[in-house]
Amino acid sequence: MPVTRSVVASFKGRLVGAPPLSSLCTQAHFRFIRFYSASTHPPPASTEALTIGMVGSGPAGFYTAQHLLRNLPNVKIDMYEALPVPYGLVRFGVAPDHPEVKNVIHKFETIAQDPRFRFIGNVRIGHDLDLAELKPRYDALILSYGASQDQRLGLPDEDAIPNVFSARAFVGWYNGLPEHRDLNPDLESSDTAVVIGQGNVALDVARVLLMPLDELAKTDITEHALEALRRSKIRHVHLIGRRGPLQASFTAKELREMIALPDTKLHLDVPLLQSQMEAGSAILSKERPRRRLMELLLKGATNPLSNTSPTSKSWSLKFLSSPIHLVTNPTTQALEGLQLEKNRLEGPLNAPRAVGTGEIEEIPCGLLLRSIGYKSVPLQGLPFDSKRGMIPNVRGKVQNEDSFTSGIYVAGWLKRGPTGVIAATMYDAIETADTIINDIQKGELQPRIGPTVPPGFKGLESMLRARGVKVVDFHAWKKIDEVEVAEGTPKGKPREKVVEVDKMMEIAGR
Ligand SMILES: Cc1cc2nc3c(=O)[nH]c(=O)nc-3n(C[C@H](O)[C@H](O)[C@H](O)COP(=O)(O)OP(=O)(O)OC[C@H]3O[C@@H](n4cnc5c(N)ncnc54)[C@H](O)[C@@H]3O)c2cc1C
At which positions is NADP(+) bound (predicted)? Predict the structure, then answer.
């Protein structure tokens, strides 16, 4: 319920409104006064703090928590995570040969050490606890549970044909995501893989398939993936895009890494690239990063490799092509190829549509990875925009406000749809935290949980115990972390990830 602004106090450099003194008669309001006085008085006891529940421990969760902890002295944050281990896609998405990206974990560890913060791992919201059970225990909930599914191609038998996977599953397999540790892709029956999509994730999986093993062996890639890649016969990877080079969504860093792969040639339709660069010169003169990307592509495709022996590897960017049919062996059902329909572009060059021409091409392949986007899933009781794969929100505040959705916020991929790097996720996490702080300033958000309901995790612990759910706290996660690092060190790896939930729980002593 909004309150009238009458008392204004300085609060960490911000102006903070509080309700009129005459209305401060309930216990919750007394707690409210103490809460807002936090900058000049010692922090009140934990039950008097603003209690925030978070769902998801990826970058969005940690950056939102960091900004709130920095700006709200009297806040308690409980972060629920479905897995026994934290960090979301930083652990299970970011490519193993990008260790510098994973350095954000050091920052997240510092956040987790804050006494006002609690990590509650191995608790899946919507399964172990419902949102409706969480809601009454928290003054605010922040949902940052990312995107745990992927977009489909919509081809017949896409899920039934062996060796056709989502890039999400393949990435999860080499990065140790427990749900995909048994994916077992066949990398030996064919020398050619196809990746549908031309974004950074597509380039990540292509690079992992083609890069020298001695480099990969020094990363935190899982041992089972490394073993399979050692036996791999894959030498050629085609990346398929519906539209043209100007519309490709990978970025320069990832492209440079692909071009720099030793003994690996890039193939693409150079005349098409040149004609698009010419036609799009007005766009390219305004968008320098895109122009540089196109120049890099041209350089990569026209630079003859000194070593083009028959054993050389290759990768290709096939533009203006849509997958229409998976070709299988009639007897074994094994994947043997992919039929593509050639497209032409219609509409403005900065946002053209791909339109099929009816011309069909077939390329042989034995492994197909679709990398056309991740997808968030709805949580019961909340609005969901299934087209954009996100919870509708304004600056992180969930819309369609009713008594259930009020006090619920979103951050990260769930907030803006499943795209964007960690830096973008950080900025929108800060925006969500600022929205919460503004709502506090406006008096729309305040400690409100009455004395009859124990706030936060305290009230839910026994419920979880009764359901047989064993919680992994941050201390227990650090035990897993230590074992992983200790197992990786003799192999020259930063860590050897534990890939089974049971084993994680055993190490955590749960
Ligand atoms: C393959 C891949 C590679 C990438 N590489 C890079 C890179 O090199 N550099 C870069 O800057 N960015 C990279 N990104 C982007 C980056 O990972 C994202 O910007 C970022 O992780 C999004 O953060 P998030 O917190 O919204 O989601 P996530 O990181 O997905 O975190 C969501 C968390 O919520 C948990 N969760 C899910 N459901 C529930 C539930 N019901 N209950 C409790 N917890 C739940 C998940 O287990 C997960 O821990 C990459 C992304 C992908 C997919």
Answer: 198-201, 242-243, 254, 420
